[in-house]
């Protein structure tokens, strides 16, 4: 019998529609796989088995009654814990939200529920989505299914590991500086950061509101397009939501899979390669460029001179926005409340005690940095300059997209590193996102497609690498066309999907 956990969402959807399998069977297969591999992987903070099966039963009954259902009806999904889910814990990986059960759903969760997709559970993440390894979670590490001693990327390491370990065919991530794409790259999964405003932010626990964007984490490019079309599109409850309809993403993915990229110009960004990128990562990147050329694309080199300052600008803008967004966690309204051990119980002392106990070190570091960058006398020098750099980066992109339809780079400069390796060195951790951050600063969409394996410099088993494609704002369809063409070329070269080569943890 086919192992249902190995099938893509598109194939599962087809089998469900044709009545070859039921949603209860598919959901149960995922839950059994969770029971088998979660002790080793720890991708989930909460598994909602009963609720998922109840949704599955309901969808099966509606299908049996001949009801017209959404194409993804009955396909299970995992959701990053920074997205609020009614009746289901939502901690954002923080002790300060331990035990908080939201009274409402994020818009994207509402859409998932309305489509009849069973929610398997909530996935692990760096606290408040700050990090690149998921080691800043207050609830323990997630392990990379390719090598359990390595990080699954971050902040959405749980969603990527869940999909890579075949415990969920689909997952939701959020990407403020790379938290969908970088975990995708290091776990051999596909991750998409949509155009800013392309997916509603209503019900995301905000990190940096001008950068945050939710998106799909999947095993195939087509699956990302299917999920993106479900969760994307205008939402009146998010004032930054784009009013126009999404481009035809599924159509673009299907067209790309046919393998013809003639007429497409691909721009290689000079600043996003070379020094700091592992030679193996660079080699896989160049092979992928050759495959795109063979598919008919024209490859040119483009320069984005201000990208050099992207990381510095990001680490002023993000902490500034985060320090303001996190001010609401004060021990007064929801989540943890700690009263001072002695002395008077004043509001200020309760806030200090609660925040001192509830936030982890990385979160405190960024609150302090952000508050400093915004303080009187420093505002222009730090936050103001960072905003100017942000404009220059947007202008670099505008100029580059005059020369190319899409821009490409390795997604992450390295393959997955060892747990603990960069934990004491925040700067080394921040450098994981050099290639992903510019897209967030400019609000443009990006995808990471698994593009091969590379042996890390210290030796050992080969690990996944990712290929990043960036497109102009609102042209997310280009990601899917180029991404699907690359995926098809790579699969015919390897004789199957990359993830088939991952160790079987079951
Ligand atoms: N790693 C980046 C950071 O720590 C990105 C985070 C994200 O995209 N949520 O800020």
UniProtKB/TrEMBL annotation:
Major enzyme class: ligase
Q: Which UniProt keywords apply?
A: ATP-binding, Ligase, Nucleotide-binding, Protein biosynthesis
Task: Note the superkingdom of the native organism.
Answer: Bacteria
- Gene3D superfamilies in UniProt: Amidase signature (AS) domain (3.90.1300.10)
Catalysed reactions listed for this entry: L-glutamyl-tRNA(Gln) + L-glutamine + ATP + H2O = L-glutaminyl-tRNA(Gln) + L-glutamate + ADP + phosphate + H(+)
Q: Which InterPro entries match?
A: Amidase, Amidase_CS, Amidase_dom, AS_sf, GatA
Q: Which GO terms describe its molecular function?
A: asparaginyl-tRNA synthase (glutamine-hydrolyzing) activity; glutaminyl-tRNA synthase (glutamine-hydrolyzing) activity
> The Amidase domain covers which part of the protein?
25-479
EC no. given is 6.3.5.7
The active site annotation covers 80 (charge relay system), 155 (charge relay system), 179 (acyl-ester intermediate)
State the protein's purpose: Allows the formation of correctly charged Gln-tRNA(Gln) through the transamidation of misacylated Glu-tRNA(Gln) in organisms which lack glutaminyl-tRNA synthetase. The reaction takes place in the presence of glutamine and ATP through an activated gamma-phospho-Glu-tRNA(Gln).
| Entry's family note | Belongs to the amidase family. GatA subfamily.
Summary of subunit composition and partner proteins:
Heterotrimer of A, B and C subunits.
What is the protein name stated in its UniProt record? Glutamyl-tRNA(Gln) amidotransferase subunit A
Q: Which organism is it from?
A: Isoptericola halotolerans
Source taxonomy: Bacteria, Bacillati, Actinomycetota, Actinomycetes, Micrococcales
């Amino acid at each position: 019998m086919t192992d249902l956990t190995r099938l893509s969402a598109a194939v599962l959807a087809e089998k469900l529609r044709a009545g070859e399998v039921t949603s209860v069977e598919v959901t149960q297969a995922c839950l059994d796989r969770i029971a088998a591999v979660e002790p080793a992987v720890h991708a989930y903070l909460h598994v909602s088995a009963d609720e998922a099966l109840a949704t599955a039963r309901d969808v099966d009954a509606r299908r049996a009654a001949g009801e017209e259902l959404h194409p993804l009806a009955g396909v299970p999904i995992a959701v990053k814990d920074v997205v609020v889910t009614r009746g289901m814990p939502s901690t954002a990986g923080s002790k300060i939200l331990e035990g908080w059960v939201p009274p409402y759903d994020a818009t994207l969760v509402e859409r998932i529920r309305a489509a009849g997709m069973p929610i398997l559970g909530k996935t692990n993440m760096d606290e408040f989505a700050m990090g690149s390894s998921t080691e800043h979670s207050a609830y323990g590490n997630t392990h990379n299914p390719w090598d359990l001693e390595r990080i699954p990327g971050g902040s959405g390491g749980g969603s990527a590991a869940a999909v890579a370990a075949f415990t969920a065919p689909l997952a939701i991530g959020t990407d403020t500086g790379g938290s969908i794409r970088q975990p995708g790259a290091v776990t051999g999964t596909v991750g998409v950061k949509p155009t800013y405003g392309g997916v509603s932010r209503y019900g995301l626990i905000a990190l940096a509101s001008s950068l945050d964007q939710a998106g799909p984490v999947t095993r195939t490019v087509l699956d990302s397009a299917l999920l993106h079309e479900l969760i994307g599109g205008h939402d009146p409850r998010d004032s930054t939501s784009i009013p126009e309809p999404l481009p035809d993403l599924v159509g673009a993915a299907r067209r790309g899979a046919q393998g013809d990229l003639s007429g497409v110009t691909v721009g290689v960004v000079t600043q996003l390669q070379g020094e700091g990128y592992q030679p193996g990562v660079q080699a896989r990147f160049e092979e992928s460029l050759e495959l795109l050329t063979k598919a008919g694309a024209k490859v040119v080199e483009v320069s984005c001179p201000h990208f050099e300052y992207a990381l510095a600008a990001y680490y002023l803008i993000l902490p500034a926005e985060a320090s303001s967004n996190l001010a609401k966690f004060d021990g007064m309204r929801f989540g943890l409340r700690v009263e001072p051990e002695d002395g008077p119980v004043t509001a200020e002392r309760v806030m200090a005690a609660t925040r001192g106990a509830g936030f982890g070190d990385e979160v405190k570091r960024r609150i302090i940095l952000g508050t400093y960058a915004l303080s009187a006398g420093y505002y222009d020098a730090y936050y103001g300059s960072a905003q100017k750099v942000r404009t220059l980066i947007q202008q670099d992109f505008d100029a580059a997209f005059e020369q190319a339809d899409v821009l490409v780079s390795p997604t992450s400069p390295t393959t997955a590193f060892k747990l603990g390796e960069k934990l004491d060195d925040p700067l080394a951790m921040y450098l994981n996102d050099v290639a992903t951050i510019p897209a967030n600063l400019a609000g443009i969409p990006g995808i990471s497609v698994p593009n091969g394996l590379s042996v890390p410099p210290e030796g050992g088993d080969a690990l996944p690498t990712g290929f990043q494609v960036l497109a102009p704002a609102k042209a997310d369809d280009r990601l899917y066309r180029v991404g699907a063409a690359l995926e098809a070329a790579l699969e015919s070269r390897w004789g199957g999907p990359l993830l088939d080569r991952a160790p079987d943890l079951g």
